Amino acid sequence: MADAFADQDVIRRLLNESETWAFVGLGDNPDREVYSQARLLQERGKRIIPVHPSGAEVLGEKGYGSLADLPDGSAVDVVGVYRRAEYAGAAVDEAIAAGAKAVWLPLDVIDEAAARRARDAGLDVVMNRCPAVEWALRRHRP
């Protein structure tokens, strides 16, 4: 069922047209996968917003303790949920409440119920896919 949340048109649109990605789980540890993914998208012109309980600045961007802490009017195109699967649902619910346009759950972060809630709320959903891999593949697809 996770493949139901891997529509190539949605993936392509999110990678091509989104401007702002909030990364839930992005702290200042460069050894974490979320750090690498955020840096990659930042290098490709995306604005990133670190969301981590520490609220630390990461990759030169102000951090926030939660999506609810983002300033009013913050437009978030995509929320990347870099938490273990058992915590993903709460982050997806925060993304819905924050008015995000999409959620992206990376490899092995699978929560079908949360993905359906997001889709039912009108968000685009990508699950069990890696932005870096999809970015590389996208270069070779029409």
TrEMBL record:
InterPro entries: CoA-bd, NAD(P)-bd_dom_sf. It comes from the Bacteria. It holds the Pfam family CoA_binding_2. Residues 14-109 form the CoA-binding domain. This is CoA-binding protein. It comes from Actinomadura rubrisoli.
